[in-house]
Write the structure tokens for this entry.
Amino acid sequence: MESASIDIQLTSLPSSPGVYQFYDSKGTIIYIGKAKNLKKRVSSYFAKKHDDAKTRILVSKIQSIKHIVVPTETDALLLENNLIKKNKPRYNILLKDDKTYPWICIAKEPYPRVFSTRKLLPKNGSYYGPYTNPKTIRALLELIHELYPLRSCNFDLSASKIEAKNYKRCLEFHMGNCKAPCEGLQTEAEYGEDIKAVQSILKGKLSKALKLFKQKMLEKSERMEFEEAQLYKEKLELLSKYQSKRTVVNPKIDNVDVFSIIADQTHAYVNYLEVVQGAIIRSHTLEIKKKLNETQEQLLEYAILAIKEKYPSISKEIYLPFEVLVPKGLKITIPKTGDKKRLIELSHRNALFYRKDVLTQLQLVNPDKHVDRIMAQMKKDLRLSEEPRHIECFDNSNIQGTNPVAACVVFKDGKPSKKDYRHFKIKTVEGPDDFASMEEVVLRRYKRLLREGEPLPQLIVIDGGKGQLSSALKALEQLGLRGKIAIIGIAKRLEEIYFPGDSIPLYLDKKSESLKIVQRLRNEAHRFGISFHRNLRSKSAFNSELESIEGIGPKTVEQLLSKFKSLSKIRDLSVEDLIQEVGPAKATLIFNALH
């Protein structure tokens, strides 16, 4: 369709809640979205120029629009989620699933087995999990089989086959691990009670099981059946020990789901905690690959639907860091203080640790992709027009007003490129003048790069505030480079980042990777400049003291400097050592002068 057809479709859109679908020239759905007002939301795609490149590409490919009207925005959220899962449009977010994690299954069969599996087949039984740590699932299954004598065989224990005596009791029966339902020695109702207790444990509800074991232990004890009482006591201790290992939050917080989110340029990470009877019984983090410039609210909405669908819980209340649209029947709480707030913070920490693990693995497995992600993040955080693959940072050093110098350090792809580091002795500035010194070194640096045809950086970082930044800008203006190279200043006190022509600084998150790279640049430039300044001062002191000795010229000083490096080492030499270096006459003069 031509663009005129799009205009006609836009005018006919209703101002109602609903879901819209964008199609390309081949009739393929490329994007699905929800809206409180279809007309207003869809029209916004075509009414303005988008900053995000992916959104611009999406709009350029739209050839037709279809929509579905629904009663409420919540209905639109649910329908959108279902349509995205079914059609998997190219420009919608991608939810990374955890299909490889194991689950605990209670099979749908007579005398159900309880076992771990990685295949999720809901029609075959009830599933609990997933469990991200294999040790957890092993420990839990061991606990269940210690507490309850459940069968481990895979026989078909239908009533007809048990009556026909098709099976014989096995070693598990003689070891006390099974009550031989295969021979009819345990009723299905009795076995079912054990299965209900196992379901309670897997859901995190331990109070019933604890109460039952305690009651049976006391009953057996009163009847003088001390061996059986001891068995129940051991089971009670096992279950109590398992309960103590769970993360207890607050006994008053029951049946609550907690969600938090962190996001960067390309991905988001949503953590989910399930809290039952004051303890966290499940933690799961969902990774989302962003396709367009989705907001945190949109991403969290998608994630809540996906997680609630995959891990059904009976909770009717959810704790969130901010307000979002959720399915009907759920109560939203946005905690401000206390244990509820601490749960949100715990969830947020889990998301952060998960993201850190993912990025660490990415850095090891695919370092190029790791660099691409950091560069994209710096471009966004520092409001740059292109990724800063080549960054140069300048710092002045004129301690005690002597030997004023400057340093330029170079980072490429976020890492130091030490062969490109440069030192500068200040030539045109008298006295300690940071602003004039900065203007001089920036002018000299880029005048030379232009003359030699060397590549220019995408970003210049100036160690200092508005004054130093203005001085550097003057140098770029003289060379016709202002506006062609991005430049920022970083002030030490509060890590403010200044931009040309903007008096209000930018404050990046203290944990931001972009800020950490800028800080590394600044610290490296400072270290490099200080070391150069220190060398100059020691050389200057060394030269002046030796050259002041009558009869000792610059060549002798240079000879001693190149071999012994410092004045203290010259002082430690004996007359005989000096004679070997400069001859008896000069050796005597130097030894007497220094001692």
